[in-house]
Amino acid sequence: MQFLNKLERKFGKYAIPNLMSIIVFGMALVFLLDSFTSANPDYQYGLSSLLYFNRDAVLHGEIWRVLTFLFFPPDNSPLFIIFMLYFYWLIGNALERQWGCFKFNIYYLTGIIGTLIGGFLTGFATNTFLNLSLYLAFAIMFPNFEILLFFFIPVKIKYLGILEAVFLLIEFIISDWTDRACILVSLINVLLFFGKDLYQVIRAFIRRKHYQRKNNQNQTNWRNNHWWDNNKK
Prior knowledge:
Elements: H1 2-11, H2 19-39, E1 53-54, H3 55-59, H4 65-68, H5 78-99, H6 101-122, E2 124-125, H7 128-141, E3 146-149, E4 153-156, H8 157-174, H9 177-186, H10 188-232
Antiparallel strand pairs: 1-2, 3-4
Helix pairs in contact: 2-5, 5-6, 5-7, 6-7, 6-9, 6-10, 7-8
């Protein structure tokens, strides 16, 4: 964070304010245009087919894909996308208010770079892991924030974050090494911003469990010795 503070003093004036509002607006616009082009018989494919990151297409001149994948809609259901875009806007603006405009820009930019590295490794990339990195950051910083799961079940965001992390870990385990590398570099912003804190939490959890096991073992030994002494008497 000290390094980021130094960068902010030098380059903070170049930060893009309300970045997540711009991204969400772009997603909504692409969704509307995609719906039109998909329904129009004059178009064989939707607009989004020209946006996601494709390594071969980029190397053949379609340079715009290194940025347009950011606006790839998260879903094709009108009802679900309204919820998702609102959620992305909510968490993105909350993070920007908490960190400030410059630090949020850096977090998002780092995620973009990681996603592009993963895309060049595998050949394809969307903004899925990038959006997931925003969600994980929000769950870490605002663990007690409640959302309505399925629009009516109140759930604290930390539990959904833990569930998402478990699924991500399972995917990491069952994937090949290329996909594992892709997952790691795509979430490099999470590791850079929260890696130290997560390490300390995991270390404290392990130490607490070790202490509990040791304490339980001592209590068991004491009971066994006490029982043996009583029988001897």
